[in-house]
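wait is this the right file?? whatever heres the structure
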């Protein structure tokens, strides 16, 4: 039996798909990269914006033909939209066989067995809980790996669906994390990315419930002491929990990548308050200033939402001003998307999509100009990159990641993949650099 898995959404979902693949393979199924050769199709879904949901609905719609040709085909939908919509998915698409949530991934092999002996379709969703087997996953890369350290989110930013579909924050025990990372390093992993919706609040639940004296910067320091671990990354940070300690820990430890993804969302205090972000523009700038002072080479990237309900011209101008002042290396920009059930879905929204798009394009134009200017500063300089694979297939163009998380393309050969190499930057585009391997 072959299964095919398609992942939507963030790195946490990518990791969950690695867990699903592991579980199914250890139950005797084989992964196929070709959807047409699969007996089981799994969609691991995202719900963060309406667009993600619409794309999913299009994709599930397309499966109807496949299912009518092959009635034995099993269609399984998991992840955040499954957790959000539950039985509604089965109502909208009666040919889905199994809907499973974000808290019961490890049940999937059991659900598949049950479905085969049943005629009904199954919707199995748990409302909370984490998984003892969080670190059982399929290794797609032999040199890098994701390591979730905290699951869920307690922040309830007013626009965001994530806390509703991922549950309350649950931190993984630090000993378990360290043991897991040590094992990964023994297996040849050079780079890990610590995952969490808000990694900076790591350990809070462990301290209050189990009296374990741990927080994110301590964990980071302990992980960075693991011998043989060349690079540590982490996403995502939240400005309200981003302590000075974290900055000093990054500074002091060579194997912690000098890159911080620090979502701003808006430059207006009024909007930040309505978003329930619990920091001001000034507090955000204070963090940026300390990073710039202590770790001048550190790149800073961000997420920004445009067109939040009630955002007026002045609020938007303040976002643009902050973007110009900080000069982010890169920014992920989004038009506000109304998510049913969130606090902001009740807010009065007087702007049309057209008006929001105009703002969005304005922000994009300014940020792209800054990204290009910042990239140009790197031309002529030498950097170490971890070679991740081919940038352009068939042309011996490799793709490497700089410490600052930028991607560079350069000529090389397959044997360089999975290694650290030095390159010199020779040219740049807005979203990637062009380099040359150093001898
Ligand atoms: N936990 C992370 C990531 C959350 S989702 C964090 O706190 O930053 C990634 C990004 O999607 C968010 O940073 C936000 O910019 C964007 N986003 C979340 N909900 C959104 C919505 N309803 N509309 C538009 N963008 C949204
Ligand atoms: Fe969503 Fe806010 Fe939690 Fe990030 S911190 S996942 S934006 S609620
Ligand atoms: Fe999407 Fe769920 Fe991640 S909503 S962004 S896949 S946590």
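ok assuming it is, sequence goes like this
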């Amino acid at each position: 039996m072959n299964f095919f898995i398609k992942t939507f959404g963030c790195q946490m979902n990518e990791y969950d798909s690695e867990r699903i693949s592991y579980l199914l393979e250890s139950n005797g199924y084989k992964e196929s990269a070709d959807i047409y050769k699969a007996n089981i199709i799994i969609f691991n879904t995202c719900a963060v914006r309406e667009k993600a949901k619409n794309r999913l609905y299009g994709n599930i719609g397309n499966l109807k033909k496949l299912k009518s040709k092959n009635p034995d085909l099993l269609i399984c939908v998991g992840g955040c939209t499954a957790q959000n919509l539950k039985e509604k998915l089965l109502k909208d698409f009666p040919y889905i066989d199994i809907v499973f949530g974000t808290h019961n991934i490890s049940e999937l092999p059991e659900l598949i067995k049950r479905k085969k002996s049943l005629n009904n379709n199954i919707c199995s969703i748990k409302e909370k809980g984490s998984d003892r087997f969080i670190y059982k996953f399929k290794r797609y890369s032999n040199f890098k790996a994701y390591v979730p350290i905290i699951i869920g989110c307690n922040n309830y930013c007013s626009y965001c669906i994530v806390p509703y579909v991922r549950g309350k924050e649950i931190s993984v025990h630090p000993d378990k994390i360290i043991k897991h990372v040590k094992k990964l390093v023994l297996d040849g992993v050079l780079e890990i990315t610590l995952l969490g919706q808000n990694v900076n609040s790591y350990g809070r639940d462990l301290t209050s419930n189990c009296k374990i004296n741990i927080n994110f910067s301590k964990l980071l320091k302990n992980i960075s002491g693991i011998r043989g671990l060349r690079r540590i990354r982490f996403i995502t940070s939240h400005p309200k929990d981003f302590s000075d300690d974290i900055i000093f820990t990054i500074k002091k430890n060579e194997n912690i990548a000098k890159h911080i993804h620090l979502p701003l969302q808006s430059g207006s205090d009024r909007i930040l308050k309505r978003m329930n972000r619990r920091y001001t523009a000034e507090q955000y700038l204070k963090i940026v200033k300390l990073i710039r002072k202590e770790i001048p080479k550190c790149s800073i990237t961000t997420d920004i939402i445009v067109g939040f309900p009630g955002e007026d011209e002045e609020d938007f101008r303040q976002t643009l001003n902050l973007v110009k002042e900080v000069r982010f290396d890169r920014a992920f920009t989004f038009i506000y998307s109304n998510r049913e059930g969130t606090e902001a879905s009740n807010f009065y929204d007087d702007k049309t999509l057209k008006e929001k798009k105009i703002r969005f394009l304005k922000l994009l134009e300014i940020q792209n100009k800054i990204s290009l200017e910042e990239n140009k500063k790197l031309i002529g300089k030498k950097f170490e990159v971890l070679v991740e694979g081919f940038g352009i297939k068939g042309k011996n163009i490799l793709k490497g990641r700089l410490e600052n998380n930028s991607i560079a393309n350069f000529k090389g050969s397959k044997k360089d993949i999975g290694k650290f190499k030095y390159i010199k930057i020779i040219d740049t585009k807005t979203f990637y650099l062009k380099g040359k391997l150093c001898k």
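The mean pLDDT is 96. so i think its the right one actually
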